[in-house]
Write a structure and sequence with these properties.
Elements: H1 2-22, E1 70-73, E2 80-81, E3 89-94, H2 99-113, E4 120-126, H3 130-140, E5 146-149, H4 153-158, E6 165-169, E7 175-179, H5 186-197
Parallel strand pairs: 3-4, 4-5
Antiparallel strand pairs: 1-2, 1-5, 3-6, 6-7
Length: 201
């Protein structure tokens, strides 16, 4: 008797399941595929174009060229090989979890606003999450170009393991100075630029 009842119920259950499976389901809201927030950072394409009124490299002993290392741009697009970056440039290596990095970011933003086509300010976000970098960029109003270095390859190439790290590069793409003394302010940045790149801000 039970077996006969089971034979009768199975087709009914399958039919019910078929109806449920084929019934039109309402569309889920787009929250699951939420669009990413627009990046606060600038595009990286200009990094390989020399600044409009760049000063020639100052006299004195120049260091090594930037490492032959390709990094992705935060905004996407073509990755940038650091050897193709046109100086003079000030490169700021930072991470959102680093308090001195957060402290000095506004000074780098102000420096980028005073560049006037004479030099470039470039960020390298290292050992960080994309969301962390995005939030700090938004909170601090940072909009200069930002490269991503999730595995700290740039610092390893420079044999420096410090946060924050500032690298000054001359018009010939050679490293003139690397600073790891902690959070830099406007006055210290201005002094470094004048001393190592011959640029007054």
């Amino acid at each position: 008797m039970m077996r006969r009842l089971a034979y009768l119920l199975v087709p009914l259950l399958l039919a019910a399941a078929g109806c449920t499976a084929t019934a039109e389901q309402p569309e889920r809201p787009a929250a699951a595929t939420r669009a990413e927030r627009p990046s606060p950072f600038a595009d990286c394409t200009p990094l390989t174009v020399a600044p409009a009124v760049a000063s020639p490299a100052p006299a004195g002993k120049a260091g090594e060229q930037l490492p032959d290392l390709t990094l992705n741009c935060f905004t996407g697009g073509t990755p940038v090989n650091l050897r193709d970056v046109k100086g003079p440039a000030v490169i700021n290596v930072w991470a959102s979890w680093c308090p001195p990095c957060r402290k000095e970011l506004p000074a780098f933003q102000r420096l980028s606003e005073r560049a006037d086509g004479r030099f470039q300010v470039i960020g390298v976000n290292s050992r960080d999450s994309r969301g962390g970098a995005q939030s700090i960029g938004e909170d601090y109003g940072v909009d200069f170009p930002m490269l991503l270095d999730q595995g700290d390859a740039f610092q390893r190439a420079l044999e420096r393991n410090a946060f924050p790290l500032t690298v000054l590069v001359d018009a010939d793409g050679r490293i003139r100075h690397t600073d790891a003394t902690g959070a830099l302010d406007d006055a210290r940045l201005a002094a470094l630029l004048e001393r190592h790149l011959g640029v007054r801000v």
